[in-house]
Amino acid sequence: MRLHRLAAAVLSAAAAIALAPAAPAGAHGSPTTPISRTAACASGGEQTGSAACRAARKANGGDFGRFDNLRIAGVDGKDRQVLPDGELCSGGLDAFRGLDLPRDDFPATKVSAGRTLTIRYRATIPHAGEFRVFLTRATYDPRKPLAWDDLGSKPLVTVTDPALDDGAYVLKAKLPQRAGRHILYVVWETSSTPDTYYSCSDLSFPAAAAARPAPPATKPAAPSKRPAARATTRAAARPVATTRTTRPPETPRPQDLVSAQRPGDDDRVTLGHWIVAGALIFGLAAASWATAGALLRRRRENR
């Protein structure tokens, strides 16, 4: 009896195992650097206690799917037709819809424009396929749900079948000029399965420098009155030019004549001067008479 009971128990257990549904595979992948919203907030995430992650869980109805299992089957490259605007981060899946919340406080990675960003995409189950990496435009507003127009038409980089390094695919992309909060959107379209994976990684660029206000327009300074006053003063100080008139000669007064005829000390004629002058005059007169007398005698003798 005991053997029959033991055999029956074993058969029952085997039947139960055979009828039980197969356990799901250990999901597939998600970016951990820069950290994605799934890797931060979803089940098994790293920062589930952050305010944005708690709000996302509440928007999900208190539940979350696994961080590496945000995937859609049969997209076949028609991402923009399958995923509507505003549902890019969740992939349109109810278990992840809280990731579409337009918030600027999801866990983010600090980056700098012009630098090459290294992306580590953790692969819990590796697959061959293509990665397409997008970055939101410079005009992106994190207060609005993410739309396809925010990402532009071309990815930053496209990588097919990258090498697996320590459990993660490594991608590199050079970041263009940006400022403030932005989203790195990664699409992993596998070629070994019908699934396509989607993820949003929040990036924090340095804030744009505040524009310096233009200096207020200054009115032209009013002409100073001081120069005019100085000019007036100088003009007043200068003698006024007058027309000169020729005065008629004045009639000399008698006293002026007397004073004019009075010789100076150097022009006085002394008595000695008169004596010398008289002697000279007398000598000349005597010589003239002598000469005249001599001429008269010669005439007489010649007769």
Number of distinct beta strands: 10
- Residue-averaged pLDDT, rounded? 79
Under the CATH scheme, which class of the domain at 30-205?
Answer: Mainly Beta
Q: What spatial form do the alpha-carbon principal axes imply?
A: rod-shaped
The CATH topology label of the domain at 30-205 is Coagulation Factor XIII, Chain A, domain 1
Summarize the biggest pleated sheet.
6 strands, mixed
Q: Rg to the nearest angstrom?
A: 62 Å
Helix share bin: 25-40%
H and E order: HEHHEHEEEEEEEEHHH
Q: Unreliable stretches, pLDDT < 50, 5 or more residues?
A: 6-26, 239-243, 256-267
Account of the protein in words:
With 303 residues, the protein is an alpha+beta fold. It has a domain at 30-205: chitin-binding protein cbp21 (Coagulation Factor XIII, Chain A, domain 1), CATH 2.70.50. The chain has seven helices and ten strands. It has helices at residues 2-19, 37-41, 51-59, 79-82, 226-237, 254-261, 271-302; strands at residues 29-33, 71-73, 108-110, 116-123, 129-135, 157-160, 164-165, 168-174, 180-190, 195-205. Strands 2, 3, 5, 6, 9 and 10 form a six-stranded mixed sheet that branches. A four-stranded antiparallel sheet has the order 1-4-8-7. Strand 9 and strand 10 (195-205) form a beta hairpin. The protein is rod-shaped, with a radius of gyration of 62 Å.
